[in-house]
Amino acid sequence: MDSGAKISKLGTRMMPYLAILRHDLGTLWSSRLVRLWLAGAALLTLMLTVSNWSRFQDAPLIASLLFPYLVFPWFFVVVVLGVSPVSGSQAEALADGILSRPVSRCEYLLAAWSARVLLVWSVYLAVIVPAIAVVALAKRPTPEDAVTVYGIVSALGLVGLVQTFLVSLGFLAGTLLRKPLLAVVVLIFVWYPISLTLSLFSLEQYSPVSLSRALSTQLRKPWRQNDAGAKPDANAQDMQAFARQVDRFFNVFSGSPPKVEPKKPDFFEGEKFEDFSMLRVVLGYGLPTLAAVILTMLCFCRRDL
Amino acid sequence: MTKGQTNKREMPARAAGAEQPGAEPAIYTEHLTKIYRQRLIAVNDMTLEVPRGSVFGLLGPNGAGKTTTLRLLLGLQRPTAGRAEVFGRPCGPNAVGVRSRIGYLPTNPKFPGSLRPIEYLDLLGRLSRLPHAIRKPRISALLRSVGLLGATNQRIETFSTGMCTRLGIAASLIADPPLLLWDEPTAGLDPSARRFTLDLIRELGKTKTVVVATHILSDIDQICDHIGVMHEGRMIFTGSMRDMKQRLRRDDFNLEVEGGEEDVRRLARDIGNIEGIDVRFGAGQELLVQVAEDRSRPGALSEVLKLVDASGLSLQGIHSGQNVTENAYLQLLQEDEAHGFGR
Q1: Chain A residues within 8 A (CB-CB) of chain B?
Q2: Which of A239, B98, B106, B263 would be A96's cystine partner, CB 3.0–4.6 Å?
Q3: Distance CA B318, CA B311 (A)
Q4: Which residues of A touch B131 (CB under 8 A)?
């Protein structure tokens, strides 16, 4: 089979996925919620930039611009967007219109999830990237700051990952609880005290507040040091630390005493966040995101419409 | 068809879509059961066979389980027990191959209101994996066929009920499937739209298997050659329309007479005295004459007419109680109720 035929076959196979993705993106884009969010995000970013223009260095200013996406108020919008596709009255129209066609439920869910993630990323990047460019390139009456391109890209990716996680969480809650309003209320009650909840499991560094505080440090990290820096076994150490954290998490549930740690990690010491690890945070948010999507699929595939 | 009620003699002969010997039926269910949350039995142990190429009327009162049956076939719901097959393939949530052969029209279909008809049909064409070269001409042809060519620039949210049903019909035909499942296709339609829909079903029935779920008996009477009657989740009858009507062969007829009240009573008494004939008063001056199964119908009718002639009353009309689907349907429901525990 030549490559043209292969591409054509793949295109035919992907046709329903792409059709739903395009349709959902169009519907979401024309919704009032998304337009208000875009306008609100742009306005808030502008206000934060102007008010902190001469007060903060580059890194803290950029971190302050990212804060609304991690904690308040945009998490609420992201969750609402995630909740909607498979719950409430939407489910009925969905069954009649799309799922009675030759489309598998997994295909539909993946397309709806991708559309929401794409939309969230688009709005977020459309607002934040120009603001960061202005902050980084403009001459401001503040001392020079060592913000790196790697730092900016990784910080943007990190916040995007948290939002992807929130969309997936909304997806799962909407599917499990079926009622969008209930799902949103439950998620608000889950997300607001998340820092407190995570501290119970000794996972403070994953909390959105901790992440936003650590962003300044991350923004100043150079690519090389992170890539092949002083510690050649940095990834191995990260993985060990991640395994310890998972262990602690399950210890809390099982009631077994946690292993005695030789010393507290440096993460919160002096608010330098030198111990901040991208790998651990990516795993910490990436794995639950994956789990949420898989659980949603399992739940949705067994559901009567 | 339900065991013991299979009647292959009544299979319609069709140029296309006709049943081939040995070919599996369009729809086959075996002990299909759906119980909602251990509380409500929507479909109860249903065994059904819908022959290929037939126009099958799924008849039953509201809540009989018609819509649930269609949704089970589409895989939108999972059966609690039993199984369902469409063209020999098992139905289920991920049975994409089954759904590619079904065109579904739900009752009062809901559409994305912000789209225009062409956009909506294009979306459905893509969901059915139709290539551009087939999709576009088919959309135009369908919009023309259902009479929506003049509304292509309107958003769907501005459509009337009739227009929505027409769009739903076009949507169910976009992939040119061999099986159509139409749920209450004439619900909420004005007489002309209803006529259009029934004519279309009759036309489509020449080349496809069509299942029409409805509680409107006159629709069934006009378009279907096979019928299944559902009551409280059970399939209480399946067979051809002729089978259905012959079930009612009690040789009843109604006499519509005009004259004095006392004369009518006397006539009724006289008719009642004939052996094997029972008589009751109907609405106005109407007599319902029931002929026993062992009596000849023409003979009984002849004796009754002689008495009418002798009574001096004016005979306004004679209406046969035979071949009335409504009566047969109501009788089936009554019989099912009367069976009690025996059901």
Answers
A1: 12-13, 15-16, 18-20, 23, 27, 30, 92-93, 95-106, 301-302, 304-305
A2: B106
A3: 16
A4: 12
Q: Would you say domain B253-322 falls under CATH 3.20.20.30?
A: no
Give the long-range contacts of residues A183-188, CB within 8 A, separation 24 or more: A183/A83, A183/A87, A184/A76, A184/A79, A184/A80, A184/A83, A187/A79, A187/A83, A188/A76, A188/A79
Distance of alpha carbon B84 from alpha carbon A270, whole angstroms: 67
Residues of B in contact with A12 (CB under 8 A): 129, 131
Q: Do residues B105 and A96 touch, judged by C-beta distance below 8 A?
A: no
Please give the residue of chain A at the shortest CA–CA distance from B97.
A102
**How many angstroms away from the CA of B144 is the closest CA of chain A?**
21
How many separate domains does chain A show? 1
At residue B7, the pLDDT reads 40
Question: Tokens 């039926």, residue?
Answer: B25
Each residue's pLDDT tens digit, B58-97: 988 888 899 999 999 999 999 999 999 999 999 988 889 9
Rounded Cα distance, A102 and A85, in Å = 19
What's the pLDDT tens digit per position in A165-213? 999 998 898 888 888 888 888 888 887 777 777 777 767 777 787 788 8
Q: Is B112 on the interface with A (CB under 8 A)?
A: yes
Write the CB contacts of A260 (distance below 8 Å, at least 6 apart in sequence): none
Q: Is B175 on the interface with A (CB under 8 A)?
A: yes
Tokens at A76, concatenated: 């609420």
The CATH number of the domain covering residues in B8-245? 3.40.50.300
Write out residues 21-40 of B within 8 Å (CB-CB) of A.
Answer: 36
Q: What are the Cα distances from residue A65, in Å, to A26, A49, A136, B15? A: 27, 7, 13, 70
pTM here is 0.77
- Contact, B315 vs B256, CB < 8 A? yes
Domain residue limits, chain B:
8-245, 253-322
Residue A9 lies in a domain: no
